[in-house]
Amino acid sequence: MALILTTRKRVYLGIPTFALFLSDDGGQEKEFKLFTLFVNDLIEANVPFNTVRNYALWVKTFLWYMLVGIGFEGASQVSVNMLYRSYYSYLVFGVDAYSDVVRKICGDSSFSMCGGVCVF
Fold it and tell me: Where are the transmembrane segments (predicted)?
């Protein structure tokens, strides 16, 4: 089963914001509520829009990286820890990373981000 993360623009307290949705192969979508709460908290704290957008972008990138990585490596505690510890290598080196799993993630055709360039 492939999981897809999509971002939609919204308005919260009169300020543009983002929501993140997780969908499966069957097209069933669920809002990622923790992401929405995080972004809304930033808005309530009067964080500038560009900062909110950047935070949302990088949180989405991290979550997507973890989802794709778990698809390759499984969801065991060891795999999740390894993926987490490899995230910096992913951001800095991308396809040139030493880690096999990072290179696999970068090579995944459904993954739009690699080596520090993300499509939001």
Answer: 62-84
